[in-house]
Amino acid sequence: MAGQLSDDELSAALAGEPSGFSAVYAIISPAVLGYFRARGVEDAEGLTQDVFVDVLPKLAKVTGGHRGLRTFIFSVAHARLVDHHRRAERTPYLAEYDPLDDTRCAPSAEDEALGSLGGMTDSLSRLNDEQREVLVLRIVADLSIEQVAGIMDKSPGAIKQLQRRGLSALRDLVTEKDHAAS
To answer: Which PANTHER family match (predicted)?
Structure first.
């Protein structure tokens, strides 16, 4: 059995004297620590500290001498253990993420964007070079008719005509695909 508090140390602890509390801690904390370790608590030292932090302000109210003090401390320890296990049950299990084990499959935003452009790219490739260039500069690059005319060294009227013909050809290609799909 662990050491026993002297009557003087017990009286000092119950009177709230620091030396008395130090003696209580030195003599009883190893038993509380062993109790937590025997019950499988990972951070037994931390939980032991929590017990004595709770016990300190309540020491003056303890009755029953040595046995009463020991019973009180272990009742606090038991309550802390129950709280610890309840908290552990409610805490979700955290596992490290390993991308190699992840069976979910989702395309990246880039893949989706390029995939949605895939059909459009195919349709654009069926236009003549000038129509394709005008549509890409106007729609994708978001340039004005005047800007596209300057880049392609054509008049704004010619760019408008190429754009109109290119959009008309794209509409026909998309309509053709829709009819083929149904």
So the answer is: ECF RNA POLYMERASE SIGMA FACTOR SIGD, RNA POLYMERASE ECF-TYPE SIGMA FACTO
Distance in angstroms (rounded) separating the CA atoms of residues 134 and 182: 31
> What are the pLDDT digits (tens) for 145-182?
999 999 999 999 999 999 999 999 888 887 877 677 66
Q: Which residues contact 72 (CB under 8 A, 6 or more apart)?
A: 55, 58, 62, 64
Interval 63-96: pLDDT, tens: 888 888 888 999 999 999 999 989 888 888 888 8
Q: What is the pTM of this model?
A: 0.50
Q: Report all structural domains of the chain as residue ranges with CATH numbers, in order of start.
A: 7-90 (1.10.1740), 118-181 (1.10.10.10)
